[in-house]
């Protein structure tokens, strides 16, 4: 039994080794359009490509089946990448929540940038803004960002 527990622990530690940044912001159920969320991280290794993943936690009472998020990546004061991501939160035909969760709250991970090779080391900022057609979204509890090294086979 001890060997099994040790193997599980080593496996979990190995999975987290490629993550260099992860943070979640509590939105308390409301996300106004003018309230962009800023995530800051540092890149040192320029040889490795990185995957940038977003996370949203929503209630099953969220009014839409999707969420548009505008993202902007900055290095120091320079804008490097800007784009719009559509996150599907509910199955379009059945209305079943996608992602993981129990009860009325669900987490959905989504790719923002699959493999980005940074050109310069240093301090980076990623700004996420909800880009729906209404000013304040309700039933969005958290927004998060994860930056991880892409493991080459």
What characteristics describe this protein?
153 residues, mainly beta, Jelly Rolls, 5-stranded antiparallel β-sheet, 4-stranded antiparallel β-sheet
The biggest beta sheet, please? 5 strands, antiparallel
Query: What is the string of helix and strand elements?
Result: HEEEEEEEEE
Calculate Rg over CA atoms.
Answer: 17 Å
Instruction: Report the end-to-end length measured between terminal Cα atoms.
Output: 31 Å
Question: How are the strands ordered across the major sheet?
Answer: 1-9-3-7-6
> How many DSSP H or I helices?
1
Average residue-wise pLDDT: 90
Strand content: over 45%
Notes on the protein architecture:
This protein has 1 helix and 9 strands; from the N terminus they run αβββββββββ. With 153 residues, it is mostly beta strands. It has one domain: Sandwich (Jelly Rolls), CATH 2.60.120. It has a 5-stranded antiparallel beta sheet with strand order 1-9-3-7-6, with no helix packed on it. Mean pLDDT is 90; it is low at 1-15.
